[in-house]
């Protein structure tokens, strides 16, 4: 009987290894929970590319509104239910859940190039130097405005204008009879909805969520002045039903040409300048976020990131998906499919260094400047004990921010006064912090 050659044995082993690897992912389905934003919808569209490169792994999508997503993934991870293999979370959850041992560290080995991720984004998604969320896109906030309307009104907008000047511009361009509103802002209740914006306004008016002893300051003079300004501004010069509008609703209004100004996430810039989506794409200009008594904390910092809960039964497949969706190659894939102006931004230095992106994205420099100027460790005029610009990075904030958002949205809708809203939020926050043992 002939003995097998070394080459034959080697081939057999290689074949067996390949079969074993393929079988490891045979009929593996990973469930990805994400938010219903434009870049996530593009990711779903490109999923067949991932599945083709990874035979045996199928991706099931659960796409939810922002506030519903947060509720679902928080409940799932706290209960270790394992409903989702990949979760879309942000800079609030990643370090807290990483510290609690609820998330698997991101596999950033090999050619993933973790150091290419913008430092502030990487830091915000890490705990103790370990990355627990891979950024899909990052953002700050800035002014997006109709330069034709502003010019016709005899007004100008500059970087870091005062909120008082922004109010004057909103008044000048406001023309409801033609379906044009001076300004569109978030009004929908939620710690990541209206409170993302309102906190930056409060910061710029000199407010903070907590003093140095963790006592809430939601009904402070600074907060009252900021929220009164916000409610008055949006009530006079905003669209009807503003208390129901968040990112997607205002994006639709702006793209229809109904907003003179919109102060929101920098990530929107690629949508409002896209002629396929925006009727006013050629009339959009940008400026850095407004300030009042301070520039500190006047523009937020956020990243939507993909993370792996410890309860997943498909960690290896989940990590493969995340590496694909947050890689340099994925950015190139989107550029090939939809153009360089449509790639997810705010994550990698290499994107901003790419001449093709710079040429296509008229917003690139303004976006990058906003992201780099936001400092989560120094976001308030008075000293504060927390990290975060538009949130405080403590577990209790989610409940506090949600309640405060509900109260302020109620004030915007006319259900209560600003003073009543902030007093109610203050009482709820004090109760929450006492129960948590902060004081």
Automatic annotation (TrEMBL):
Do the record's keywords include Signal? yes
Q: Where does it mainly reside?
A: periplasm
- This protein's source sits in the domain of life called Bacteria
Signal peptide from the UniProt entry: 1-26
Q: Which keywords fit this entry according to its UniProt record?
A: Signal
Record's subcellular location: Periplasm
Query: Which InterPro entries does UniProt cross-reference here?
Result: Bact_solute-bd_prot1 (IPR050490), SBP (IPR006059)
Pfam families annotated for this entry? Answer: SBP_bac_1
Family listed: Belongs to the bacterial solute-binding protein 1 family.
Name of the protein described by the UniProt record: Sugar ABC transporter substrate-binding protein
Taxonomic lineage is: Bacteria, Pseudomonadati, Pseudomonadota, Gammaproteobacteria, Oceanospirillales
């Amino acid at each position: 009987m002939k003995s097998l050659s070394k080459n034959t044995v080697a081939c057999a082993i290689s074949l067996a290894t390949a079969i074993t690897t393929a079988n490891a992912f045979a009929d593996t389905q990973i469930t990805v929970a994400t938010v219903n934003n434009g870049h996530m919808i593009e990711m779903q569209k490109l999923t067949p590319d991932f599945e083709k490169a990874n035979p045996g792994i199928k991706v099931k999508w659960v796409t939810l509104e922002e506030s519903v997503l947060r509720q679902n993934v928080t409940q799932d991870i706290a209960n270790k239910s394992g409903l989702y293999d990949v979760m879309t979370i942000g800079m609030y959850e990643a370090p807290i859940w990483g510290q609690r041992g609820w998330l698997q560290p991101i596999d950033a080995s090999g050619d993933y190039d973790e150091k290419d991720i913008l430092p502030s984004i990487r830091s915000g998604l890490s705990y103790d130097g370990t990355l627990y969320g891979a950024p899909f896109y990052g953002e700050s906030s800035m002014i997006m405005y109709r330069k034709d309307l502003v010019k016709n009104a005899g007004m100008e907008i500059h970087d870091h204008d005062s909120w008082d000047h922004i109010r004057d511009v909103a008044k000048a361009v406001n023309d409801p009879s033609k379906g044009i509103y001076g300004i569109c802002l978030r009004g929908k209740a939620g710690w990541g909805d209206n409170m993302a914006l309102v906190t930056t306004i409060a910061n710029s008016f000199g407010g903070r969520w907590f003093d140095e002893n963790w006592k809430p300051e939601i009904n402070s003079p600074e907060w009252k002045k900021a929220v009164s300004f916000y409610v008055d501004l949006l009530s006079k010069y905003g669209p009807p039903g503003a208390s129901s509008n968040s990112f997607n609703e205002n994006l639709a209004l702006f793209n229809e040409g109904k907003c003179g100004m919109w102060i929101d996430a920098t990530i929107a810039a690629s949508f409002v300048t896209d002629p396929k989506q925006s009727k006013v794409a050629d009339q959009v200009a940008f400026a850095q976020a407004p300030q009042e008594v301070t520039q500190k904390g006047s523009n937020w910092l956020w990243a939507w990131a993909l993370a792996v809960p410890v309860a997943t039964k498909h960690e290896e497949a989940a990590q493969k998906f995340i590496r694909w969706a947050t890689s340099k190659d994925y950015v190139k894939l989107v550029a090939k499919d939809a153009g360089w102006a449509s790639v997810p931004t705010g994550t990698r230095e290499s994107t901003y260094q790419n001449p093709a992106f710079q040429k296509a994205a008229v917003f690139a420099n303004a976006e990058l400047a906003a992201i780099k100027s936001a400092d989560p460790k120094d976001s308030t005029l008075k000293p504060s004990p927390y990290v975060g610009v538009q949130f405080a990075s403590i577990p209790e904030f989610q409940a506090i921010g949600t309640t405060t958002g509900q109260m302020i949205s109620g004030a915007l809708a006319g259900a209560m006064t600003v003073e009543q809203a902030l007093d109610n939020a203050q009482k709820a926050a004090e109760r929450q912090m006492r129960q948590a043992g902060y004081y």
